[in-house]
Amino acid sequence: QVQLVESGGGLVQPGGSLRLSCAASGSILSRNAMGWYRQAPGKQRDLVAIIGTDSGTHYVESVKGRFTISRDNAKNTVYLQMNNLKPEDTAVYYCNLYPSDQLGYWGQGTQVTVSS
After folding, report:
1. What confidence score (pLDDT) does residue 102 get?
2. Is 49 helix (H, G, I), strand (E, B) or coil?
3. CA-CA distances (angstroms) from residue 100 to 4, 26, 47, 114?
4. N or C: lower Cβ tally within 10 Å for the chain?
5. How many CA atoms lie within 13 A of 66 on its CB side?
């Protein structure tokens, strides 16, 4: 069975950095495009970044130049390096396949809080 386990979140000051990790069980990561998503309180879950099986990437405009998505298929892990964090980045961050409607499953997410 597929599991997606996010980690690496925490409390940081504006301008700080975090590196999120997503450990995926099975062979899902190597065979599928993966995405990072986030959900702020009272808002819907939004796509943040995508990495394809060819390692091509896409980012939502608000994080371009600050976030970098990467994958290590040998470790069954996808990463999100977040630099120059802003308060508006505060959210629970999730990883999943892209498109996200393929598993019918979401992990617990990892909380990112950006505050001074």
Report:
1. 87
2. strand
3. 12, 17, 9, 26
4. N
5. 17
